[in-house]
Amino acid sequence: MTIASLPQLLERIQDKRDEVVALTQALIQIPTINPPGDAYEACCRLLGERLKGKGFAVEYIRAKGAPGDSESHPRINVVARREGQSLGASAPCVHFNGHIDVVEVGSGWTVDPFAGLVRDGKVYGRGSCDMKGGIAASVVACEALIESGLPLPGAIEVSGTVDEESGGFSGVGHLCRLGYFSKPRVDHVIIPEPLGVDRVCLGHRGVWWAEVETHGRIAHGSMPFLGDSAVSHMVAFLHLLDTELKPRLLARRTAIPVEPPGARQSTLNINGIHGGHPEQRYALNALGEPIGDLPTPVVAHSCRTVLDRRFIAEESLESVKQEIIDMLDELARTRPGFAYTVRDIMSFVPSATPQDAPVVLATARAIARVLGREARFIASPGTYDQKHIQRTGQLRDCIAYGPGILDLAHQPDEFVGIDELVQSAQVMALAVLDLQGVLPQLSR
């Protein structure tokens, strides 16, 4: 059936409601947990085979040798492209990118996290919100455009990429290094992260992940006075973070509309800590005897913690790092025996696409048409793969837009609303038509 009007196209997508639900369920049912990076290839194959049936040329690209890649857990990405019908000057390519990896399940679930349960107008499961629902919506939007018979002058691309939850270096980062997210191949990118169907996400706060190690001197645990505990040194450092740094961070506020509002300040999270004897859970049998290995009586000579420092646009990466170094140096001056090492793990500066960028304006206009209300412009509290597209791909026309409630990401009983799946697919389809110059030709 050839689509001649905007209402017809929107109705067609509405009629594909069951399809977008079924695809969301199918994606959830493949447990792509990261780490370690399970079932990536199976998930990519599901997307690739479906898009191939709609005329897309499909590539499976392994990030061989990149972080996390191994024979047991290969980092495989899928990129699908359908060429446009432009016979003259090249029309813009619109790319939808979604990460297929999900975080661990965790505790507190009341439903099967990988069943894709549908209940009360919602699809439940790990990754439903972040972000397999968004991937399904973008695929269905593209399929509806193709089935409409509209003459799309530019190319459409869809990718499913890996490891976003652990930095994206073997996913979008790897593809950016290969030129998959740069002009002239791609002009506009929409990442369907769960930011809400009426919100356009322009960018994100900055991040610095670092490992701080305190050093001590090993000794017998019965004579700790002959050693120097690295754990005790770490406790002193963590105390300074809690009593001095965190209060300062609370006072730093950004003018950028980060959502949720609690993220409009600088934050610090301790991701993990380990020191001394190798980590192990200890237990006793029925006779009161220890099971498994026991700790050895030593004073800890090393203690490590991982800092997750999120910073606002009004701060610089250099100042964020120096603030931590200054605190460590102060302890080295005032605390006998204190010594430390700092190792960078990952850092990205805050990102922001201009509000007058083509992809921003097109998506905002589509939101107004579909939902009947003006779009809100926001920024994300955490980084996502826009960081690679802008830094390595050198492509600025990139946003996040997709179904779901951000606060549900990584939570037990994660879900995505079915109405939001359909509405976001409608918005994405209209944004493509707008960016490729087709929308004005449709009768109202």
Q: What would a concise description of this structure say?
A:
Helices cover 31% and strands 22% of the residues.
Descriptive key words:
444 residues; alpha+beta; Aminopeptidase; Alpha-Beta Plaits; 2 domains; 6-stranded mixed sheet; 4-stranded antiparallel sheet; 10 helices; 18 strands
Which second-level CATH architecture of the largest domain applies? Answer: 3-Layer(aba) Sandwich
CATH class of the largest domain: Alpha Beta
Instruction: Look at the helices and sheets and give the structural class.
Output: alpha+beta
Low-confidence stretches: none
Provide the CATH topology of the largest domain. Answer: Aminopeptidase
- Give the termini separation: 18 Å
> Based on CA inertia axes, which overall geometry fits?
elongated
Mean pLDDT: 94
User: Please, how many helices?
Assistant: 10
User: What is the makeup of the main sheet?
Assistant: 6 strands, mixed
Name the CATH superfamily assignment of the largest domain: Zn peptidases
The oligomeric status of these chains comes to single chain
Strand content: 15-25%
Q: Give the strand order, joined by hyphens, for the main sheet.
A: 1-2-6-3-7-17
Estimate nothing, just give the exact number of structural domains: 2
Helix content: 25-40%
* Helix-strand pattern: HHHEEEEEHEHEEEHEEEEHEEHEHEEH
Q: What is the strand tally? A: 18
Alpha carbon gyration radius? 25 Å
